[in-house]
């Protein structure tokens, strides 16, 4: 069979290519956005005084809520389609099935583990909405671990745990796609020597 591309032994169906593209792109974008919240956005917001930090967390939270679930669902639908259309015993189908389960699992994970911290931070945002940014002792009497900055730190740590789920799902989508590709075989490459080089 003639090689139709450097990495393909045969042309894959268009639906398969689209599903793989959506699965990989959406899951990797989800991983990047979730990780950047804990590694970039929250550390920056924690430098602000408590009332402003709570407001900044709320912005991070609401924007993340608009992006996270749709990306998780889109990538899970794509990998679910791949798992359904592939040979059930293939490694690719098993990896895509794993991705289909892992990627949307961030939604129940959020409800089970992040929701209590979310609720406390939402209450802090409302409680400190009219507080002065100059008041350094605004949370002086708050229990240890329950002030805005400690709650934000806890939220960032739990969010990184979500990133592990997304990262595992994204890795499964990539490995599932790669397991279907045929790298050009060495048998198709010939080396000529001496006078044979000239054809």
From TrEMBL:
Gene Ontology CC terms, in alphabetical order: membrane
Q: Where are the transmembrane segments?
A: 96-115, 159-178
User: Where does this polypeptide localize?
Assistant: Membrane
The primary site where this protein sits is: membrane
Q: Which UniProt keywords apply?
A: Membrane, Transmembrane, Transmembrane helix
Any matching Pfam family? Anthrone_oxy
Topological type in the membrane: Multi-pass membrane protein
The keyword RNA-binding is assigned to this record: no
What domain of life? Eukaryota
Q: Which family does it belong to?
A: Belongs to the anthrone oxygenase family.
Q: What is this protein called?
A: DUF1772-domain-containing protein
Q: Which organism is it from?
A: Clathrospora elynae
Its taxonomic path starts at:
Eukaryota, Fungi, Dikarya, Ascomycota, Pezizomycotina
